[in-house]
Design goal:
heterodimer, A: 106 residues, mainly alpha, Helix Hairpins, 3 helices, B: 171 residues, Four Helix Bundle (Hemerythrin (Met), subunit A)
Amino acid sequence: MIPDVFPQVLPLYLGLSAALFALGVIGVLVRRNAVIIFMSVELMLNSANLAFVAFARYLQQLDGQIIVFFVMTVAAAEVAVGLAVIVAIFKTKKSINVDDISVMKG
Amino acid sequence: MNPLTEQYIMFGVVGTVAFMTALAMVTSRNAVYSALFLVLNLCSIAVFFLILGGPFIAVVQVSVYAGAIMVLFLFVIMLLGAEHTPGEQHLPWQPAVAVLLAILLLATTGYTLWRTAPGWSPTAGMPASLAGDPEAIGKLLFSSYLFPFEVTSVLLLVAIVGAVVMTRDTK
């Protein structure tokens, strides 16, 4: 039987996952467009998914993939509500620049 | 070819695509370009899922994430005409601090990874097949994870109600 070489590449996957997460953090911190901030959050969720699946492969257990399934569900719900919030804000403020919506007053 | 070399090549190609598209997504000026780069990024992650033995979640990733969710994003961007945010100006020190903080985060995770790596038990000799096919996923989902699965349906219902309430005309 060919020995499984995956344990040796697992750190690469985790490194890429960490890098994607960091890029998502940069996006959330730097960008001013509310939609792009949302997309950066999606990027972070996805980097976590990648780590989950890599560990599922490493441990030869499917539980990690199930978690990914739930993360996707949560992401879908988050996007539906979040974009509804953005549309509602746009109706009143005529802007989705997060600097324009820094006061908690309608 | 050496299986390790194969793994490195696959990771190198797909990983480069994933990283570059993520970088382009964050730095892109136009929100539509950002969304399209994110679609490409999600697809490359789906390829990773395939490589890692999860054909079912790879398909779900493409259809739900890259399909449904990103279409919703593009729809909202174009509905609001939000390709560019006028007056997007930063505090002069802000990007530098953000990049610094992100590098700090990356260094922390990298350090944890580096410290933990030698302790990992090698699982060499294990069967390389991990059956993430729909049947196995479904069996697990409807046995061990039945309760979380049901909670998910409530979550989606709440999200639907929330989205409707948010966008309702209050006049």
